[in-house]
Amino acid sequence: MRRFAPFVIVAVLLVGAAARDALDDWVNRTDLPVTAVAHSAEIRDRNGTLLRAYTVADGLWRLPVTMDQVDPQFLRMLVAYEDGRFYDHPGVDGWAVARAAGQAILNGRIVSGGSTLTMQVARLLENGPTGAWSGKLRQLRLALALERRFSKTDILNLYLSLAPYGGNIEGIRAATLTWFGKEPARLTPAQSALLVALPQSPEARRPDRPGNTALAARDRVLDRMHRAGVLTDEALHTARMAPVPTVRRPFPALAPHLSDRVLADAPDRQRHDVTLDATLQAKLERLASDALRGKQAELSIGILAAEIATGDILASVGSGGYAPGQGQGFVDMTRALRSPGSTLKPLVYAMAFDQGLAHPETLIDDRPVSFGAYAPQNFDGHFRGEIKVADALRQSLNIPVVLLTDQIGPLRLMAALRRSGASPALPGGKPGLAVALGGVGVTLADLVQLYAGLANNGQAVTLHAQGGPVPGPRIVSRSAAWQVGHILSGMTPPPGAPANRLAYKTGTSYGHRDAWAIGFDGKHVIGVWIGRPDGTPVPGAFGGDIAAPVLFDAFQRLKPQLDALAPPPPETLLVSAALLPQPLKRFRGRNAVFAQEPDAPKLAFPPDGARLPLNDTGLVVKLRDGIPPFTVLADGKPLLTGNRTREVALYGIGKGFVTLSVIDAKGRSDRVNIRVD
């Protein structure tokens, strides 16, 4: 028998080698499932904080995560509880499998698992069965194959991404955000124990389900970790006293409008980093909701905050609530075209300063005026007479700004608006003088960008949510921008707001459709819009009444104290009205030398181009201004001389086209062309 022993040993070795080779071949021929896990797209703020996440295609919350982003104690507890020899076995723990097989033979069914973390990953990748022998065999084969092609770190990362935690929650990051409202970087022992226990029976142990199943499962993990020496007596006692969460927390959903836009621009990217600040965004979203509370259900709101020096958008609130309804919360009102009301007036004044038409101390007439058929009126219907330009801007008077726009030219005003980065839309094509009073379509983002440029020494600032600063062209000079900012900083704050010298301007569009307030200090600019998304009027809504208080509140939530405006550039003309150069003392316009004096006589009726019937009562003529006595002529022929009344009837006028003229005592005149039938 001894002489056959060497042959027996050789035979056994050969059989073992053959079996090993067969096993290797069997494992190597394993078809691996797809290991590239689909993760939820994420929008992160400037500090890496999660602003918003989106479910993957099958409706699951599954956020990307790696071991270095997870609390080390959780990882120790996970390995100790689920797979103590994880770092030593090749994917299958022989001792655990033998134990599980023995128990199954004795009981006629599978009693305990011999499943390793790698085998669990294999099951999760294929969503395979857990109890059938065929399923276990497939997991065993796949686990061996995974270990040969991936590192232990890779396998653990897959587990951290795929483990189920109840409902549509997969992965440790989605679980900690759902059950604890936090990232997994720092967890308490009690939280870690619950997260170790949940994947074993995620539906039965869900913390938001009735009963104590989750608590009992967590405490079993804690007790076992204590016996294994992972937890001290004190840590065990403290952890068992901690409550188990009973509600599922919503995922962060900040800046939904901007997030949707960013994702739509790059749908294939998983992570999108933006310039927003999550803390400020949350504050301003709450402010927007509070501002609409108790008001019409159809109202919406937009708030946009940005950093002047960089153009970084720090917060973007597109509505009072991201939901359907009368307020059309899904509509992003930071990008909707609206009438700007009076908010373009600072640009007009800055351009007038640049072109030498006016100075803040220049006197300008606030009086009835007409430009052909266009006769602008002040919002309150009153006239102030002669007033300083700075006061005209602060009081937001319409007539002075139209007078300046007439001299600047509406086309130049539109060009400056475009240089600021805005994309104005004209309903009629060619711009008219009404542009200065809101006769153009702009967005809240356009206006915030314009005011950022004024605050940036007159140089355009490109607002952006991604990327870095982009230098823009010059809109107005440094001195003109400073003068406008200085004027606006003298605006009276709304009632109850701090007197903090915020440079701001309000606006109300025609028919009370839009209420605006835009303001800036030395570092930041914020804009507020309130109205109805469908463009219908909101009776009684004024920018100064409803938008300005929100603007001041927004700055208070941004920072405790305003940053001072920059000092005036050295080239700024800082003098009183008495010391102004003569052409700047009073606004007359470039053609003042050819223009009639303001109190020159005027034919108030009939208007130029009128068509009037001829009758026996004569042609009624009404005069305004001028110094009597008046001479009235028809086609150069005097019809009336020495007249001191301002309403007379003329006789002797024939049918056809007639030129009527009036001359006052100082030789000043006016005339109109009419047609008499």
Automatic annotation (TrEMBL):
Record SUPFAM superfamilies: beta-lactamase/transpeptidase-like, Lysozyme-like
Pathway connected to this protein: Cell wall biogenesis; peptidoglycan biosynthesis
Entry keyword Protease: yes
Domain Penicillin-binding protein transpeptidase: 303-520
Gene3D superfamilies assigned: Biosynthetic peptidoglycan transglycosylase-like, DD-peptidase/beta-lactamase superfamily
Keyword line: Carboxypeptidase, Glycosyltransferase, Hydrolase, Multifunctional enzyme, Protease, Transferase
Ranges of residues in domain Penicillin-binding C-terminal: 594-674
Reactions listed under catalytic activity: [GlcNAc-(1->4)-Mur2Ac(oyl-L-Ala-gamma-D-Glu-L-Lys-D-Ala-D-Ala)](n)-di-trans,octa-cis-undecaprenyl diphosphate + beta-D-GlcNAc-(1->4)-Mur2Ac(oyl-L-Ala-gamma-D-Glu-L-Lys-D-Ala-D-Ala)-di-trans,octa-cis-undecaprenyl diphosphate = [GlcNAc-(1->4)-Mur2Ac(oyl-L-Ala-gamma-D-Glu-L-Lys-D-Ala-D-Ala)](n+1)-di-trans,octa-cis-undecaprenyl diphosphate + di-trans,octa-cis-undecaprenyl diphosphate + H(+)
GO biological process: peptidoglycan biosynthetic process; proteolysis
Cellular component aspect of the GO annotation: outer membrane-bounded periplasmic space
Name of the featured protein: peptidoglycan glycosyltransferase
Organism: Thalassovita litoralis
